[in-house]
Amino acid sequence: MRIDAALPISLARLSVSAGLSLGLALLSSCGSDSDDLPLVSGAGGTTATGTSPAAASLLAQGRAYQNAGNTRKALSTYKQINKEYPYSVSAGEASFSEAQILDKEGDLFKAFESYQVLISRHQASPHYATAIQRQEAVAHAAANGVIKNNFLGMKTRISPDKVEKMLGQVRDNAPQAASASKAQYTIGRVWQKEGNADKAIAAYRRMATDYSSSPYAPEALYQTGEILVIKAERGNQNKANVNSARDIYNDLLQRYPSHSRAADARRRLALLGGQDIQRSFDVAEFYRGKGQTQSALFYYREVTSKTKSGALYNKAKQRIAELGGQ
């Protein structure tokens, strides 16, 4: 009776044991393919250190296509690796090979994007520094308008928004490197050439603020002043823009007194001062012609307060006397 009663218990234990063994076997069989799954890296997902036999096999296949001259098949294979195994070491190699093919063919925009994939995902790659340098060269070529964007070597106009995006990536990929300040300065130049004063000023001000020790900082300040002067000449808020330009030039003199642009800033300040005096005198003459004596006297006195000698000073003093002012 006890033997019969114990039998179901033994069978139950055997069943549980068998189930555990089966589960472990299934886990083991799944583990054999686990390396083929896309690898999730650490914080930010930017460092690839995992290996994948399947990705490595595809990489070898892609290189065989490339060596045989079948670049279309090679590119397709490299893209497959990045799609299915984006954080594997093989994906980094695939991105670099893809970028080099596109670079050689003259499809520089797509090459830039492939270099960006390597830079953002595979910072441990032996090709990382090369990708950084080549991407910078492509971005500045685009800014200079000399970029080829297809394998026929044809050139088309590149929108400033696209150029700014490319230069922004160069800046952000290595924010502490000299390439970052150069990229930010070039963004300002791009918008200045386009005639977009507000975007150019914003880019230059970021340049002077974030990269004040850069050799491009004094030039960024000077160009900001130049744009403000032009805005004053063409816009309605002349006084505000002139005052802002004066502040910029003075800032340049204070921060970079020995820079070559310091002398230019001094000349600009002298010129602005002369323009201010002339403007005040012209306004005074306008009010005198209208018979508005008090307003005229106000601006004649402004002339004499801004300068202590010269033709305009003498004329203003004479007008003040004629109008009965002190």
Topology diagram in text:
Blueprint: H1 2-31, H2 53-67, H3 71-84, H4 89-105, H5 108-121, H6 128-143, H7 160-173, H8 178-194, H9 197-210, H10 217-234, H11 238-255, H12 260-289, H13 293-306, H14 311-322
Helix pairs in contact: 2-3, 2-4, 3-4, 4-5, 5-6, 6-7, 6-8, 7-8, 8-9, 9-10, 10-11, 11-12, 12-13, 13-14
What's this entry about, in short?
The chain has 326 residues and is mainly α.
Characterization of this structure:
By secondary structure, this protein is mainly α. Among the domains are: 52-158, Serine Threonine Protein Phosphatase 5, Tetratricopeptide repeat, CATH 1.25.40; 278-326, no CATH class. Helix content is 75%, strand content 0%. The protein has 14 helices and no strands. It is rod-shaped and about 95 Å long. The N and C termini lie far apart (133 Å). The model is unreliable at 1-49 (pLDDT under 50).
Task: Spell out the key features of this protein.
about 325 residues; 14 helices; mainly alpha; about 75% helix
Tally of alpha and pi helices: 14
Q: Which term fits the overall shape?
A: rod-shaped
Q: Would you list the SSEs in sequence order as H and E?
A: HHHHHHHHHHHHHH
What oligomeric state is this? Answer: single chain
Low-confidence stretches: 1-49
Mean pLDDT: 81
CATH class of the domain at 52-158: Mainly Alpha
Distance between the termini: 133 Å
For the secondary structure, the number of strands is 0
User: What fraction of residues sit in β-strands?
Assistant: under 5%
In CATH, the architecture of the domain at 52-158 is Alpha Horseshoe
CATH domain fold name of the domain at 52-158 = Serine Threonine Protein Phosphatase 5, Tetratricopeptide repeat
CA gyration radius, whole angstroms: 35 Å
SS class = mainly alpha
Characterize the main sheet: none
